[in-house]
Specification:
Layout (H helix, E strand, L loop, with lengths): L29 E5 L4 E8 L2 E5 L5 E3 L9 E2 L6 E6 L7 E6 L2 E9 L10 H8 L1 H11 L2 E9 L4 E9 L5 E6 L5 E7 L4 E6 L5 E3 L1 H9 L2 H6 L9 E8 L2 E9 L5 E7 L5 E10 L3 E15 L2 E11 L3 E11 L14
Antiparallel strand pairs: 1-2, 1-8, 2-3, 3-4, 5-6, 6-7, 7-8, 9-10, 9-21, 10-11, 11-12, 12-13, 13-14, 15-16, 16-17, 17-18, 18-19, 19-20, 20-21
């Protein structure tokens, strides 16, 4: 009587897993377009074993092909892929999960390692020391602008307060729809949200860590803040600018991806995740564009955030003030 559960060890290969090395992996390696998420998946060979690098997730090992050419993901045996080959490099990769199939057309070859900028070169372009010094000289900052919740059809005004000691406060006034308030106090190890769309809620632990990593000051000045050792994955053109794509290992597991423009060291795109109480961890895509110079610091005028919970939010900064004399009450939670 009763139920019996089989609980395989985390990371253990699925039953029947065959990691046999690929005799000639070269024709299968490259970049493939996953249209639903507007991503490029990259296949590589690790000691002859084919891997699929999925942005925002991890690099999955593939098993040996079965009689029909399907290869399962080691950590997700319900997912499998099959390469479309006609004697030369694969022209595409068929993806199948729980009966649904999708073709990922080939987007291009792998970027050779010698053409990649080194991590030291990317860090030199970003020049975090100079950016953090410029931020320090600006003192307390106030940013004002316009905000649009695309999927909700709501528009309004935005105010962001950034204290030199790391505190953060934001109000989003959507007029007749109501207002949203958010704040963070790293010294007290707390973040909060409130407003007309839900009750007052506080965040700590993992959620606070995610919010601290996502602070716009860190994105601007030190995009690898709060992560493990970054690694350069590839170089590619993004929105007309040559970029280095870095993998940022999260201490709690998994990794984020960041696109850094090699012309000015600006962050242009960030693929991360956020913990939501009702949904668990969800993917988040942020883009930063239309950078402008402000007292020795480059700031993004436009910021877009998209996730499965709230859709896409677009912000445009129209006014920037430095050395604002904020009072403690200006960062107090709105209950």
């Amino acid at each position: 009587a009763g139920l019996v559960f089989r609980m395989p060890r985390r990371g253990a290969p699925p039953e029947g897993w065959d990691p046999a090395p690929e005799p000639d992996p070269a024709p299968l390696l490259g970049r493939y377009t996953f249209a639903p998420a507007k991503q490029e998946w990259t296949t590589r060979a690790r000691d002859g074993v084919i891997t699929v690098d999925v942005p925002g997730q991890t690099e999955y090992e593939l098993g040996a092909p079965d009689a029909d050419g399907w290869r399962v993901f080691r950590s997700m045996p319900s997912v499998r892929v099959r390469f479309v080959t006609e004697g030369g490099p694969a022209s595409g990769m068929e993806y199948q999960e729980r009966g649904e199939e999708l073709l990922l057309p080939r987007a291009g070859d792998l970027v050779e390692a010698e053409t990649l900028p080194s991590l030291a070169e990317v860090m030199a372009v970003v020049d975090s020391s100079a950016r953090k010094l410029a931020l320090e000289k600006l003192g307390d900052l106030r940013l004002r602008g316009n905000v649009r919740l695309v999927h909700q059809g709501a528009e309004g005004r935005l105010e962001i307060r950034l204290a030199a000691d790391g505190r953060f406060w934001q109000s989003t006034d959507l007029g007749e729809f109501g207002a949203i308030y958010e704040g963070m106090n790293p010294a007290r190890e707390i973040a909060w949200t409130s407003g007309d769309f839900g009750p007052y809620e506080e965040s700590a632990g993992k959620e606070l860590t995610e919010k601290m990593r996502g602070d716009v000051r860190h994105v601007i000045a030190e995009p690898w803040f709060g992560y493990g050792d970054p690694a350069v994955l590839r170089a590619e053109d993004y929105e007309g600018e040559q970029c280095a794509v870095l993998a940022l290992p999260r201490p709690e597991g998994g990794r984020d991806l960041v696109w850094i423009g090699l012309a000015h060291g600006d962050v242009l795109r960030l693929e991360t995740s956020a913990t939501v109480s009702s949904m668990g961890s969800i993917p988040v895509l942020q883009t930063f564009s239309d950078y402008f110079e402000f007292e020795g610091l480059r700031l993004p005028r436009k910021i877009s955030t998209q996730n499965d919970q709230s859709g896409r939010t677009e912000m445009e900064i129209t006014d920037t003030q430095a050395r604002v004399k904020f009072a403690d009450a200006d960062f107090a939670p709105r209950r």
